[in-house]
Amino acid sequence: MQIEVRIDPDCQKTKIIIVTKEVDQKINDLVKKIEDVQPKVIAGFKDDRVEILKPDDIYRIYASNGKVFVETDKDDYTLNLRLYEVEQRTDNLKFLRISNSEIVNLQKVQNFDLSFTGTICVKLLNGTTTYASRRYVSKVKKVLGI
Predict the structure, then answer these.
(1) In degrees rounded to 5, what are phi and psi of residue 112?
(2) How far apart, in whole angstroms, are the C-alpha atoms of residue 77 and residue 42?
(3) 8-state DSSP, 61
(4) What is the pTM of this model?
(5) Separation of alpha carbons 14 and 9, rounded Å
(6) Are 128 and 71 in contact, with CB atoms under 8 Å apart?
(7) What burial class does residue 141 get, using C-beta atoms within 10 Å of its C-beta: 0-12 exposed, 13-18 middle, 19+ buried?
């Protein structure tokens, strides 16, 4: 693979061009890596304003009644994204999907209660209690190393 960088003082916006004989898995992986470098933000809507939400302020992201909500230190916000899109924008080391309808910030978890049969109770630092669905219990345990 050859890499070439051209300096053009008249260039207004950086552009990446891939020249190849055929598109294979290596090319697809390269394109995905380049796309993943783009900054991904989560914009929360509250009344008539939009705020860029800091991941460290988020306790949980959940879907309810066909909408996606974010619970933060300050307030609750709605999102114009689907839950899977939010999951793609969050850091997998900080955020964990615990059910089909919820993602929690691991840094905001007070404890995991394993005494429930078939599920895990998740208590957040702000007092919110939620539950990992049976489908996600093994994934939660794997992240916790148990």
Answers:
(1) -115, 125
(2) 11
(3) E
(4) 0.71
(5) 11
(6) yes
(7) middle
Alpha-carbon gap, residue 12 to 2, rounded angstroms: 24
> Cα(120)–Cα(112) distance, rounded to whole angstroms?
6
> Which pLDDT band holds residue 38 (cuts at 50, 70, 90)?
low
Kindly state the helix (H) or strand (E) to which residue 32 belongs, with its residue range. helix 25-36
DSSP-derived 3-state class of residue 84 = helix
Cβ neighbours, 10 Å, residue 128? 15
Highest mean pLDDT among 10-14, 32-36, 58-62, 141-145: 58-62
Measured from the Cβ of residue 98, the count of other Cβ atoms closer than 10 Å reads 26
How do residues 78-94 score in pLDDT, each as one tens digit? 999 999 888 888 877 79
Going by their DSSP bridges, the two strands 129-132 and 120-124 should be labelled as antiparallel
**Domain residue ranges in the chain:** 42-144
In CATH, what is the architecture of 42-144? Beta Barrel (2.40)
Enumerate the β-bridge partners of residue 112.
122
Could you report the per-residue pLDDT of 91-112, keeping only the tens digit for each?
Answer: 777 999 999 999 999 999 999 9
